[in-house]
Design brief:
Layout lengths: L8 H33 L8 E7 L6 E7 L5 E2 L5 E2 L2 E3 L10 E4 L2 E4 L3 E7 L5 E11 L6 E9 L5 E10 L5 E10 L2 E6 L6 H4 L30
Antiparallel strand pairs: 1-8, 1-10, 2-3, 2-9, 4-5, 5-8, 6-7, 9-12, 10-11, 12-13
Length: 227
């Protein structure tokens, strides 16, 4: 009596295509959320205004230490790795225990490098010293010191290679002054920072310790070699 209406083929195809597109879109957003949510939760976005990098030859067993003093008298060094707005990212001891874990296997890390990061800037003078804490030979050790101001653009404030000449040798690499976030003066007039970290030192925020650096050290065992 009544004839059944037959849907045109193109309408059926359009409906199937529309539903398929909805499914694909849903799966895309679901996958995107699953991939990015953990990354966002664990995201680390450290803020640094300046970076000081100290490097010496790869695979060299000597121990070089970095000392930096800010305008307030805070000193960052291997015993006090955070002071004021400065942070010593890593105390590199030459080849002593210098290994990294790769595929569950310990391998030697040849890189000798220390880095100090500034999380903020203060007006006034900063002093950067390097110290030959452990010398395992008599030849001078070339040490590269680089100071970079990162914001608003990267600016190299200082970059030079300095020779250290044996255990206990301290050298003022650079002194620079900031005014309104701008570097206005760069010198290398010597000033000991090691003395300020010893007993009786008066630098605010600095730690104290007794005695000078020891003698040579065995890079494999870390034991001091008596002179």
């Amino acid at each position: 009596m009544f004839e059944e209406e037959v849907e045109p083929d193109f309408e059926i195809f359009s409906a199937l295509l529309f539903n398929a597109l909805k499914a694909v879109t849903f799966m895309f957003f679901l996958s995107f959320a699953m991939i990015n949510s953990p990354a966002d939760e664990g995201k680390v976005d450290p803020k640094a205004e300046m970076i000081i990098t100290v490097t010496w030859p790869d695979n060299d067993p000597d121990d070089v230490d970095t000392y930096v003093m800010d305008p307030a008298g805070n000193i960052v060094w291997y015993t006090q790795r955070e002071a004021g707005l400065m942070h010593l990212e890593r105390d590199d001891r030459g080849m002593f225990k210098d290994v990294i874990l790769l595929n569950n296997e310990e391998i030697s890390n040849p890189l000798n490098q220390e880095t100090v990061a500034f999380r903020g800037l203060q007006d006034g003078e900063y002093i950067v010293n390097i110290v030959h804490y452990i010398a395992n030979g008599s030849a001078p050790l070339p040490v590269q010191v680089k100071v970079e101001k990162l914001n608003p653009t990267v600016e190299v404030v200082f970059y030079q290679t300095i020779e250290l000449r044996g255990t206990g040798h301290e050298e003022t690499a650079v002194r620079f002054t900031l005014e309104g976030g701008e570097v206005v003066n760069v010198t290398n007039e010597p000033r000991s920072l090691v003395e300020l970290t010893r007993d009786g030192g008066k630098a605010p925020g600095s730690a104290t310790g007794g005695g000078g650096p020891p003698g040579q050290i065995d890079a494999t065992t870390g034991t001091v070699i008596e002179q």
